[in-house]
Amino acid sequence: MKHVRIAIAGLALLAAACSGGPTTGEAKPGGTSESPTSTSPSATGDSRLASVKPCELISDGEASDLSIKSPTPSQSLGQGVCEWDGVGNGGLTVAVEPEEGADSLNYEGDVKTPWKFGKYDGFTVAGAKKTAYMCHAVISVSDSSSVQIIASAGAATTDTAKACEMAKKSADFVVGKLS
Question: What is the pTM of this model?
Answer without folding.
Answer: 0.72
